[in-house]
Amino acid sequence: MKYDLNEMMCLDVYLSDLTKEELHTVEPQIQNPKIRSMPLLSWDLYMDGYSHQMAEAIKRLERDKVLGFAKKFSWKNDLNLAFSENDYEALVITDLNQNIIWVNEGFSTMTGYSKKFAVNKTPKFLQGKETLEDSKNRIREKILLQVPFKELIINHKKNGTAYICEVKIIPLISDRTTHFIAFEKEVI
Question: Is the dihedral of CA 92, 93, 98, 101 positive or negative?
Fold first, then answer.
């Protein structure tokens, strides 16, 4: 029996179902250099779905962490809505003096700085020679006004590389503003 392996889409499934004798029969055809192998599409599809599920699980854990802070500090903001409306790579929570109290892993991935390094610093450590004064001034003014806003700023990664960062900052309010949350993503 001759097998046309060029037409087989799921070679891995096919081979796993063969007896030893059948496998011995088709082995020379599989090792034929004229036969081009097909990409393993089922694995690609699986990994794509798995990757998406993992990203969603991480986002849920981050939201839950922030909701834990909300409970601790009695924030009245609708944070579920904030998470559903804002796309982000990095999350940063600061106190009123802009000292960082928490960042997510995405912050480390985006900037190269560890969570441990960032905590108790202000986000100013991300600024550098390419950061525009106008951007810094607009951010400073909006933070003083304690209103939600979006701004683009040129930040610098740990390795010195400049990148454009879209920052959406929301004041976190109990009876008054106590903290800020920043949803950040690199803009290409």
Answer: negative
Closest CA to 163 of 134, 135, 127, 137: 127
φ, ψ for residue 165, nearest 5 deg: -115, 125
d(CA 16, CA 24): 13
CATH class of domain segment(s) 42-187: alpha beta
How many angstroms separate the CA atoms of 14 and 42, rounded? 13
The model carries a pTM of 0.75
Domain limits of the chain? 42-187
**H-helix or E-strand spanning residue 92:** strand 90-95
| Residue ranges in the chain modelled with pLDDT below 70 | 1-13, 15-16, 30-46
